[in-house]
Amino acid sequence: MASWRELAPEVRAERAIRIILVGSESSGKTTLAASLAAHYQSRGDVWQHTIWVPEYGREYTRMLLARQGVIENDPDAPVHSAEWTAEDFANIAEEQQRLEDAAAAAGSPVLLCDTDAFATRLWERRYLGDASTAAFDAVPELPQRGLYIISDIEGVPFEQDGIRDGEDYREAMQRWFEEELTVRDQPWALVGGDAEQRLAASIQLVDEVLWAHFGGLPDDTDA
């Protein structure tokens, strides 16, 4: 059987197990995504190519703030909030999906994503209400997910980085993720505790998904 790295990029993109980390603002999901990627990379062989996909929405937020002159107009404000449109969320969803697909084609048998187009739909709901569906319209179908991991806000203090304006929405956002993933019959798990506990629990969850799909943990000789 051909090795994983010998597979065509489009085949790797189809076969890679996509693990999506989601959660409210300042819930630790980005730290968890990076730590998970480092863990799998450390296994060597085919796993050294494990990729994690950053949240494009944060980059877009900074670009939007700059375009609107928000920081320039009030540089000393504790938090800077952009004015959002439906088109913004469509742009974010499309680019997030493009980045995910490109990484799936280039990486190992597991792909770790710090959010996805589905999460973008919920952020659109938070800012523009239930009637706005631009993110869904832009990316109506998603590749199969191996697992959604929700990073629990319990025990994680809100840390302001200058662009987070959803402290009062943290509990509601987490509830939305749990409810929407359940309604859509998507596999999900909530992980909590300190950083080490979240990482250990997530590794166990991801390994279980990989074992169920591949019948083991692939190496460079398996595809």
- Detail the poorly predicted runs: none
> Based on the structure given, which CATH architecture is correct?
3-Layer(aba) Sandwich
Which structural class is indicated by helix and strand composition?
A: alpha/beta
Using the coordinates above, name the CATH class: Alpha Beta
Summed over residues and divided by their number, the pLDDT gives a mean of 92
- C-alpha termini separation: 7 Å
How many independent structural domains? Answer: 1
Shape: globular
Instruction: Predict the CATH topology.
Output: Rossmann fold
Cα-atom Rg, whole angstroms? 18 Å
Largest sheet: 5 strands, parallel
User: Which range best describes the helical content: under 10%, 10-25%, 25-40%, 40-55%, 55-70% or over 70%?
Assistant: 40-55%
Q: Roughly what fraction of the amino acids lie in strands?
A: 5-15%
Structure description:
The protein is of the alpha/beta class and 223 residues long. It has one domain (20-214): Rossmann fold (3-Layer(aba) Sandwich), CATH 3.40.50. It contains 9 helices and 5 strands, in the order αβαβαααβααβαβα. The protein has helices at 9-15, 29-41, 56-68, 70-73, 86-106, 117-128, 134-138, 170-183, 195-214, and strands at 17-22, 51-53, 110-114, 147-151, 188-191. It has a 5-stranded parallel sheet, with helices on both faces. Helix 1 crosses helix 5, helix 2 crosses helix 9 and helix 5 (86-106) packs antiparallel against helix 6 (117-128). It is globular, with a radius of gyration of 18 Å.
